[in-house]
Write a structure and sequence with these properties.
The chain has 207 residues and is mostly helical. It is built from nine helices and no strands. The longest helix has 29 residues.
Length: 207
């Protein structure tokens, strides 16, 4: 197969940076400020609505009426979930919600870039490799820089049980990423993001 072109390579690298570094930093800040239910709901709401707007603007994929209706229903569900989580709210729950929505918007931007490449060349593992490199390389640099600044204090308190849980979560996240990337090859960003919003239900139950 021929080379996909530096434009698409750059898009994949930027998508990985946007998702793995910027989006995840915002997401984990949302978790610490707002809790699991609010963060997952806010992030998924950001994915759905930002995905609709970004795919319409940059990919010219016009959502169907049913997709707009579904987005409104998801938005209403987001409000109810957020209200339910406010039974024992933290003082900065609104910051958690804001961080989560911004994180979801970053994920939606990466989905749009992935879809752009997949429409031109449906190369699953090239797309996965590009986004992974674009995210993991700068993330590693940031971690090492912080470790050098504080003398590796974060690693001193790290337990193997925590490492195991994080690795297990990474495995599930990788499987989800493969599924989403594969879906971007065959369907629109709006459809993929709307269907993936089912995680709202499961996260709310788990929390």
């Amino acid at each position: 197969p021929s080379f996909i072109g530096w434009r698409f390579v750059g898009a994949l690298l930027f998508g990985g940076f946007l998702s793995f570094l910027v989006g995840n930093v915002l997401y984990f800040n949302g978790l610490s400020q707002g809790g699991l239910g609010i963060t997952v709901a806010g992030a998924q709401g950001g994915v759905v609505f930002a995905g609709l707007l970004l795919s319409l603007t940059f990919l010219h994929e016009r959502p169907r009426r049913e997709q707009w209706t579904g987005a409104v229903i998801i938005g209403a569900g987001l409000v109810f979930i957020a209200i339910a989580q406010l039974g024992t709210p933290s003082e900065t729950w609104y910051l958690g919600l804001l961080f989560a929505i911004l994180a979801g918007s970053c994920y939606a931007g990466t989905n749009v870039l992935t879809r752009m490449v997949q429409r031109k060349r449906p190369v699953l593992f090239v797309v996965l490799a590009g986004t992974s490199i674009g995210g993991l390389v700068p993330l590693t640099i940031v971690i090492l820089f912080q470790a050098a600044q504080n003398g590796g204090a974060a690693f001193e308190t790290l337990e193997w049980s925590t490492v195991g849980v994080v690795l297990l979560a990474g495995v599930f996240n990788a499987l989800a990423l493969v599924g989403l990337t594969q879906a971007m090859r065959d369907t629109t960003v709006a459809t993929t993001n709307t269907l993936s919003s089912s995680q709202l239900v499961f996260s709310f139950i788990a929390s």
